[in-house]
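Field: COMPLEX_INPUT
Field: COMPONENT_COUNT = two
Field: RESIDUE_TOTAL = 423
Field: MODE = joint
Values follow.
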Amino acid sequence: MSERFSAFSFVDRITKLEPGIRGAGRYTIPPAVAQFPPSLVAEAVGQLAAWVSMSQLDFRRRPVAGLAGEALFLADVAPGQSLDLEVRIQSCDEEAVSYGGTASVDGTRVLQLKDCVGPMLPMEEFDAPEAVRADFETLSGAGAPPGRFKGVAAREVKVVDRAPGERLRAELRVPESAPFFGDHFPLRPVFPGTLLLDTQIELALQLAREAPPLRAVAALLVPMRVSDVKMRSFTPPGQVLELRIDLQSATAESATVGLIARANGKPVSTARVEIAPRRVS
Amino acid sequence: MQQKEITKEEIAAIFPKVAQIIADALGVETADVKPAAPLIEELGAESIDFLDLVFRLERAFGVKIPRGKIVEDARGDLAESDFEQKGVLTEAGLRRLREFLSEVPAERIKTPLKSADIPKLFTPETFCKVVIRAQRAAPASA
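Field: COMPLEX_OUTPUT
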């Protein structure tokens, strides 16, 4: 089966579209995948915004990951659940789309994205415009077949230095090949920024669990909020990324951890994650 | 219509807020953001930072700053072909840019200057002026 429009596609159907203003869609997490981290829920909302903005620009341009002011991870999701996705476009032109959005499960909000900006680049660098237009027609009609996503293999991460509860340095070896590269993107494989973020959040969780103020609740810690995400450059297959994970502050209630990824000494991305004990309802 | 000149007092009034926004966007200390420091050369800004900056300024000041507006405003009523030829600024374009980016030392605006390199000239003061022009164009509702 082709990986295009399947291996890293997280909108099954576009259910509502007001061009240039808002869109709604649905995505069912395949029951067979082992897990579906919050970064991929954010990816699903971002992909819906991409469909709304690409259709507005007649598929001449497509957005790529750029900035996310804030992502609130409000609840975990599980394989088999359906995400109701909504986006509101704040502006969209040939240079960038700015938007916010949400994902909900059975009426309960699980994720909120605020102040996101995707730089718009020429579509033909990434995919064939006519093929993307056809996919859009599919999503706007009967929808794409469910269960296309098969999960993502564990990433190859090597911790190279650590000061427990203070900082952690690691190397992420981006694979030379993976199914998601066939979808992200068909003509130009790029390591998805949300997979990088997911890797960084996992390392930040390790670090926060060692921070003295949070040791008593280490087992309950989850990422609650990611802010100031900035993707500076594309990461191609085979790239080795240096990950710098630094505890910025910690109290008994939460920790804030700075996330920097570099390639060959140059920053690839920056972000911040807030980690806290899981709220018990 | 001739735009009223932007005064030093107007710039000084918003500079602290603009400097804080630039510091947040670039991940540098506010103290390092000097009014005349070229953002690319001295503070390491890249194109994604300019996009970030414009959206942060829009939110903070409640104004709309269309993308590409700085260069477009610099060109003013000059025809594109009078402003630049094959991507390089003409003498008239350079004169217009020196007037428009009066905060940038004139000797930095010299031929040959590619229009794609104009952002290398931008300083924090440039963005103060962008905000003031946007405020004048559509005053934020109280």
